[in-house]
């Protein structure tokens, strides 16, 4: 397939538009994390609503093959709880799904985590992350006891595991079940840390799962930890042959080369971006209320739909 330079540039721009939309980056800094977790708490305290330990700030870390997310989330949460008097509950969620093998591969390639490759093979994604959390961050994961709400106040970080979910909709369903089982039945905030190619959809799944809470709905925020951006390769061979992905490179200012090596292959990233928009649509084929009903309605701006058409066309896919 012949791809002209201007078409590659337009496709890169389109990919970046889609990427920014699906990443749903609402938390970028430690200050953002603090606001996302605790701003609703202050309001509820003023209204004397938050009177029970069942209400808590929650961070949900979803399993994926992008290990830099684990590093960012765990180190940031540790810094936050060290500086705060408020408790935080961290739920690590993820079972064994169709892409779990990619996580095993990522661990095997990782310069530090490769030492646990044999130990985590065949384990649910949440258990892989648990091993990283315990062995490399030296944190203790909650074991045994189910009713932990109201635990000793010096224990400011509680880590729970959900290891049965196989997609982002079930991440939300089973995470709520785990929180409920441990007595955290009314979280006042939930920050969802997820692979940026599906973070917005995962937040929408959590909003759907908690939609029955009515006036006591948690405040939600997306935390992809970064937004993948691409650019045209600096130099393209005159007779270069290949699809769109061979003309693109990552362009993430805050990433160094080692981190970029831990990302998706470019062809997979393009596939994920193109595949995400139909899933978020609120029609008979999407996951919204008119379709599968696993997420709340998501407004997809026309400029994102236009970008989706451009990227799909350049990839040679038949778009609706």
TrEMBL record:
Transmembrane stretches, start-end: 54-74
Source organism of the structure: Fusarium oxysporum f. sp. cubense (strain race 1)
Origin superkingdom: Eukaryota
Keywords of the record: Membrane, Transmembrane, Transmembrane helix
PANTHER family: DUF218 DOMAIN-CONTAINING PROTEIN, INNER MEMBRANE PROTEIN, PROBABLE PERMEASE
GO cellular component: plasma membrane
Protein name per the record: Protein ydcF
Alphabetized Gene3D superfamilies for the sequence: HUPs, YdcF like domain
InterPro entries the UniProt entry points to: Cell_Envelope_Assoc (IPR051599), Rossmann-like_a/b/a_fold (IPR014729)
